[in-house]
């Protein structure tokens, strides 16, 4: 386990994810706990998820609109009201300077103590979290935290917009191969399920969504050494201050 800043010392958190639903699969239970403790959480989705879904009868433009609606509803299930989208093309995200700047801009706007993002590392034990978009967003977001957002001379156009440099104190990575911190989300599990069910275009075909989620979270709880029957989400926490 690593040293983690106590939630009581966190005022604001920013969640940077590649697609609508990423945060809900990986961290919705944890986010529910943060908002319950009074932490102001902002979601930043790099894409609108226009390449998702299973219905050829829905245009990609309509799918993007639908997934934005679903993510806002899912956010509401865990107490988040500030949801933002960058509009990058789903399935084609790269860790470019442009993406780093766009994430750094939001970091300077929100001024979070903690940023949650996908791991930039490939997880060979569970391939699904290692979608190329996830890894690209994780890489760009980590670079936006350090050095971009804190360096007043990086992206001078951000200073021209009136956005002063900001140092994020802590990063949480989800979906990677090296978890070093677990959050007990047993009581928040119904809210996590509700958040994921809001993504109907992505999960309506799953016969046992709740059972699948419970299996993942039981595995994490055992890795964390929690008692039988508990559920947990896992992260790699990195000190960045």
Automatic annotation (TrEMBL):
GO terms for molecular function: hydrolase activity, acting on carbon-nitrogen (but not peptide) bonds, in linear amides. InterPro entries: GlcNAc_PI_deacetylase-related, LmbE-like_dom_sf. One of its GO terms (biological process) is glycoside metabolic process. Keywords: Zinc. The keyword Glycosyltransferase does not apply. This is LmbE family N-acetylglucosaminyl deacetylase. It comes from Thermomonospora cellulosilytica. The lineage of its organism: Bacteria, Bacillati, Actinomycetota, Actinomycetes, Streptosporangiales.
């Amino acid at each position: 386990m690593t040293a983690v800043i106590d939630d009581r010392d966190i005022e604001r958190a920013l969640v940077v994810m590649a697609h609508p639903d990423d945060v809900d699969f990986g961290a919705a239970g944890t986010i529910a706990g943060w908002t319950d403790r009074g932490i102001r959480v902002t979601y930043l989705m790099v894409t609108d998820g226009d390449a998702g879904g299973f219905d050829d009868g829905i245009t990609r433009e309509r799918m993007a609109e639908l997934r934005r609606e679903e993510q806002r509803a899912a956010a509401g299930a865990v107490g988040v009201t500030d949801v933002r989208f960058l509009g990058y093309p789903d399935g084609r995200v790269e860790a470019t300077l442009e993406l780093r700047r766009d994430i750094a801009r939001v970091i300077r706007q929100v001024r979070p103590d903690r940023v949650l993002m996908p791991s930039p590392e490939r997880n060979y034990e569970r391939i699904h979290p290692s979608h190329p978009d996830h890894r690209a967003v994780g890489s760009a977001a980590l670079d936006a935290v350090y050095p971009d957002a804190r360096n007043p001379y990086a992206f001078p156009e951000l200073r021209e917009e009136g956005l002063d440099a900001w140092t994020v104190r802590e990063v949480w990575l989800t979906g990677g191969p090296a978890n070093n911190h677990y959050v007990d989300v047993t009581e928040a599990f119904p809210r996590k399920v509700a958040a994921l069910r809001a993504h109907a275009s992505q999960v309506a075909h799953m016969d046992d969504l709740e059972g699948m989620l419970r299996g993942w979270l039981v595995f994490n709880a055992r890795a964390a050494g929690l008692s039988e029957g508990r559920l947990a989400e896992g992260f790699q926490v990195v000190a960045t201050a």
